[in-house]
Write a structure and sequence with these properties.
Blueprint (H helix, E strand, L loop, with lengths): L1 H4 L8 H18 L7 H10 L9 H24 L10 H15 L5 H15 L2 H22 L7
Helix pairs in contact: 2-4, 2-5, 3-4, 4-5, 4-7, 5-6, 5-7, 6-7
């Protein structure tokens, strides 16, 4: 059944494919226990040779590099938005999906509806049915926390 749920890359385009490639790299790093500060070597290899059909591109690289630079802050934000589940208790897929979504919300300034939809779609394809609601809830909470923390800093209230 998992095979029928997974989308083929041909259906994803642009940034959607790059989010999936970023997930591939972060998941591989997680499985191999590669520290965020050592992600660059793996990332450089995935720009040329990929276990997927299409190597990681610029946007996927931007996601992975941003995570590598801000890993502690990203993981802390995920834990703040999900107090019942520490990052270490989450499945590797869910943990890395949330890392991608958190990076996009916190540092790449992608609009919340886009991030939540894209990450939920990846969760549908690569995780469990329960994961979809979980990642959506955590990402919405990350956006709420981020907005509360930045309220008034740029003249917005």
């Amino acid at each position: 059944m998992a095979e029928t749920r997974r989308r083929h890359d041909g259906k994803r385009k642009g940034r959607s494919v790059q989010r999936q490639r970023a997930l591939d790299v972060l998941f591989e790093a997680d499985a191999k226990q590669i520290a965020p500060e050592s992600l660059e070597e793996l990332l450089n290899g995935r720009k040329v040779v990929s276990t997927a059909q299409q190597p990681i591109g610029d946007y996927g690289v931007q996601i992975v590099r941003t995570y590598a630079n801000w890993a502690d802050d990203v993981d802390s934000m995920i834990e703040a938005a999900s107090p019942a589940w520490s990052v270490s208790r989450m499945s590797a897929v869910d943990r890395n999906l949330l890392r991608i979504g958190a990076v996009e919300l916190m540092y790449l300034e992608v609009d919340k509806p886009i991030v939540v939809t894209e990450i939920a779609n990846l969760a549908r394809d690569f995780s469990t049915d329960k994961a979809v609601g979980f990642v959506m809830g955590v990402l919405n909470r990350i956006d709420e926390i981020r907005r509360a923390e930045t309220a008034g800093k740029s003249g917005d209230s």
